[in-house]
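Late entry, written up from scratch paper. The run itself happened at the end of the previous shift, but nothing got recorded in the book at the time, so transcribing now.
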Amino acid sequence: MSLPNLPNPFNNLPDFDKENVLLFLLATVGQEELGLAHIINAEGEKVQAAVAAFEKRDISIEQLLSTNESVSSVMKRVLQKEILLDFKVDDVVELLKDH
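Output as recorded:
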């Protein structure tokens, strides 16, 4: 049985030098950081809304704690992503030094 013959989607890409590729990688980190900033902001707003609702007695302490657990879980994932992005930046910086 032979392997499938798939077209190469990268045949028509322009040639990039190493520096441009590394700068592009840094730009992708910036875009990911922006996305994470939006997530962090949304989670902060979620906590503020839950606290306000609790103060008005619209939600129970259990619901407030559940919101806190949810936000905590999301923030742990954000932190993990931040660590990975830090590794990515470190790798790019090292490659730029070699350039």
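The mean pLDDT is 91.
(Scratch paper discarded after transcription.)
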